[in-house]
Design a protein that fits this description.
single chain, mainly alpha, MetI-like fold, 13 helices, globular
Amino acid sequence: MKFNIYEKYLYYSVAYSLVIIAVFPIYWTFISSLKVPSELINSSPTFFPNIITFEYYLDVWNLNNVSQKINLADTFWNSTIVSLGTIFLTIVLTTLTGYSLSTFSFPFKNVIFVLLILPILVPGLSLVVPLYKLLKDLRLLDTYFGLIFIHTVGMLPLGTFMMRNSFDSIPKSLREISILEGAGEIKIILTVMLPLALPGLLTVMVFAMYQSWNDYLMAFIFTNKPEMTMLNVGLAKIARGGSQFEMKWGHLTAGSMISFIPIIIFYTFLQQYFVRGVTGSAVKE
């Protein structure tokens, strides 16, 4: 397909416009975190700080809000533990489920697959009350595993769908050859299938990281102890740590930029696999 010069300029103009729209909120948050208080709340906004300060970053990382008992470093590590646990458990469950649905034949396989991905259509907010009761009965409120369990369950429908498609794109003859050579199913999954399904696997990891790291609602509802405060909940409490009619915008923007770092690093290293995993593989048997 060939583009004439006008179509080419139109294509790039639309593409650059969308990039600017997407990146501008992050840029504005970043420069706001570097402005001194008088410039930050000025009625005439500036697109670059006249005076650069890192005061908010130092304050928010070492802040110990006595009334809220919030320390951003502690909330950062809490969210890290929950995210890593969610990624690990999601990978294990979606890999085994997707492989089973793609490889084996058993009664009502398609029905089971549809039932597994059907919860995608259910709003997460409608499940808050039953999930709260479930975690309370299991004594998992205010625990890392409680949040890991919630986020993993939320990732199962999408993760199962993506992993099944990834395994479907792998020629079945590779598994048959491995079986003839005496390999068991676990060895086949680890040494043959997973390396070929790596784009789908890493895409599931990105989604699991994004969901668990950026969560606010579940962390706010299911954790009440100060030592179990998650990052986004801590940011909200720090931002409201001033007087009743004052928001600590500088601390909020600095904390938000700190919270962006793991997501940016994670996505940067896995970007090429993420795109391949979302679009699907072109390899068919």
